[in-house]
């Protein structure tokens, strides 16, 4: 089962395409997005800093997970990855990052909804995530998509059962 691309207009009227990540076609553009990522938008040490660390991290996600990207005018402006939890078969961990000028435009919500639908169709039981408890914008998106907080400390642990 493949990921069906989605095309929509964000809150500024920009045409955004959400589609499966293609390692051959997208790797360099994704590395570039992360090299230019605003340091203030990093959360819990991610995305990593520096090209080598970014390449290693993306390599891990390519090997262990499934990624989708948000694209605007041929530029990757968002990335969402799910990775199956090695200790909990059927459970995937989610991470999402958007370039600063594309945040708060409905793109993250569309990406999260798309991956929930995809994970459900793939037969996963649950999606989990961890975010900084001060990351209000992301938390609002997750709650809007049905995630609930299961543990709050310095980080917020959230999950969405898919049954």
The CATH superfamily is Gcn5-related N-acetyltransferase (GNAT)
Tell me what portion of residues adopts beta-strand conformation: 25-35%
Biggest sheet overview:
8 strands, mixed
Span of the ends, CA to CA: 19 Å
Describe the protein in words.
The chain has one domain: Gcn5-related N-acetyltransferase (GNAT) (Aminopeptidase), CATH 3.40.630. The chain has four helices and eight strands; from the N terminus they run ββααβββαβαββ. Helix 1 (23-35) packs across helix 2. It has an eight-stranded mixed β-sheet with strand order 1-2-3-4-5-6-8-7, sandwiched between helices. Helix content is 32%, strand content 34%.
List the helices and strands and how they pair.
Layout: E1 6-9, E2 15-20, H1 23-35, H2 51-64, E3 65-72, E4 75-84, E5 91-98, H3 107-122, E6 126-132, H4 136-144, E7 148-152, E8 155-161
Parallel strand pairs: 5-6
Antiparallel strand pairs: 1-2, 2-3, 3-4, 4-5, 6-8, 7-8
Helix pairs in contact: 1-2
Provide keyphrases for this structure.
32% helix; Aminopeptidase; 163 residues; alpha+beta; 4 helices
Care to give the gist of this entry?
The mean pLDDT is 95. This protein is of the alpha+beta class and 163 residues long. Strands 1-2-3-4-5-6-8-7 form an eight-stranded mixed beta sheet, sandwiched between helices.
């Amino acid at each position: 089962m493949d990921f069906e691309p989605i095309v929509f207009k964000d809150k500024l009227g920009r045409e955004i395409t959400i589609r499966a990540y293609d390692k051959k076609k997208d790797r360099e553009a994704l590395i570039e997005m992360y090299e230019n990522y605003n340091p203030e938008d990093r959360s819990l040490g991610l995305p990593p800093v520096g090209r080598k660390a970014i390449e290693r991290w993306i390599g891990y996600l390519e090997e262990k997970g499934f990624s989708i990207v948000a694209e605007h005018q041929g530029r990757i402006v968002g990335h969402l990855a799910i990775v199956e939890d090695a200790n909990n078969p059927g459970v995937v961990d989610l991470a999402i990052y958007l370039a600063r000028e594309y945040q708060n435009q409905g793109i993250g919500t569309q990406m999260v909804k798309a991956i929930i639908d995809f994970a459900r169709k793939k037969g996963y039981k649950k999606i989990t995530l961890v975010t900084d408890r001060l990351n209000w914008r992301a938390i609002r998106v997750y709650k809007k998509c049905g995630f609930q907080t299961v543990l709050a400390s310095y980080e917020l642990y959230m999950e969405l059962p898919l049954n």
